[in-house]
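B., you asked whether I could sanity-check this one before it goes into the benchmark set. Here's the sequence:
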Amino acid sequence: MTRKIFIRLLGVFVLLLAVEAVVMEFVFHHMAVQTVGATDRAVLWAALIALALVVPVAAWAARCMGRVAAFALRIADGDLSARLEHEGEGELSAVETALSQAAERLNDEFAELESSRQELAAMLDAMQEAVIAITPEGLVRWSNAVMQRIAGAQIQNGQPLEQFVHAPELLEFVHGALERGEVGFGRSKSLVVGRVFEISAAPLPSGGALAVLHDVTRIESAEKARREFVANVSHELRTPLTSIQGYVETLIEEPDTNPDTTREFLGVILKNAKRMSRLTEDLLVLASIESPDYQPVLKAIPASTLVKDAIDSLRGMVAESEVELEFAGAPDVPVMADPDRMSQVFGNLIENSLKYASSGRRIRVGACLLASEIQFTVQDFGPGIATKYLERIFERFYRVDKARSRESGGTGLGLAIVKHIVQVHGGRVWAESEIGHGAAFHFTLPLAQGDASQI
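And here's what the prediction gave me:
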């Protein structure tokens, strides 16, 4: 319908121009070959009247066509807000109305598409995975915010992928999807130093490829820690089990063993059984405090009470080692703490110090007030710990002197338990030492609510 009307208007416009040309030719022909007379004047007036009628119509038609052409150019340039102003009625007005309605529908559809595109971009940016789309020519079509952070540079659309990514595994999978239409899966450790990514790349139906990268560094680290933990536990259990098995087999094979020898063997068996029992208990404690569901039973307790209770409960154990346990002072300011867990913290720290404090003959336990927390200290005066070991002594199963620790019955979990209990309380733990001058183990606990303002 619209096309027919447009053709009709164009035909009328051409016809008017043709009439104008014929009239002008006729007029100028008669003026050239005849003497101007009455007849010629009549013809001239007729021509002028025809010209006066044709020119406005032609100008009106040209103006209408110009408005339509200008409207079409604005639409072509992306200005979908352009509209034709209706003038009068008739077929041309119907054309203008139809064109304006088409432009309005097109504008609505483009707005809906843009809204959908923005929603999709927001969802992809919110993903934990990195996503990047590649054109059939190997250029970046789109990438989400995670991918841009991983690349370490602002990825620009329309640029080659190799300009921003240098991981050979990712490039290989992308090229396989682009050139051979293959779906690739694998891992990359070269994309970011110290991080591991699972990569999947697949061809897109419309051409190009899509790559998704999932950071599995934490999973890899957790799996490595699990393997090391199982290996350490197995190693710690193997030694006492082997000892128990050997002594029991000896007693069974030699029933007439000297009673003193039998008693000695049974003592060794009991010692290793206790070591296994303690290891099992420490593992259960560690598993409990590492659980996401674990919550300490916090109470407001004066720091001085915590220190004095620890000294009183452990004085007997220390006395057997001929080591003096000293109270180094502590403020009466209350802290938020679980009494049972704090008793375990002090017990592990003091017992650890006993292994190395025999030369110093004393252990000092005290606390001091800081800005918004209390710092507790357990200090021995033994041989000390080399600086290179201080950062690792709170790791599970880590020992500075493995032989001495096993001989004393240590499980290698005491300081790790201390670290986790303190962290669950919202505190910090660290050690300071100097060879020949002993070692000091510090940890902090937050003040009870209402006491920070009184400092």
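One thing to flag: The chain has a mean pLDDT of 76. Otherwise nothing jumped out at me.
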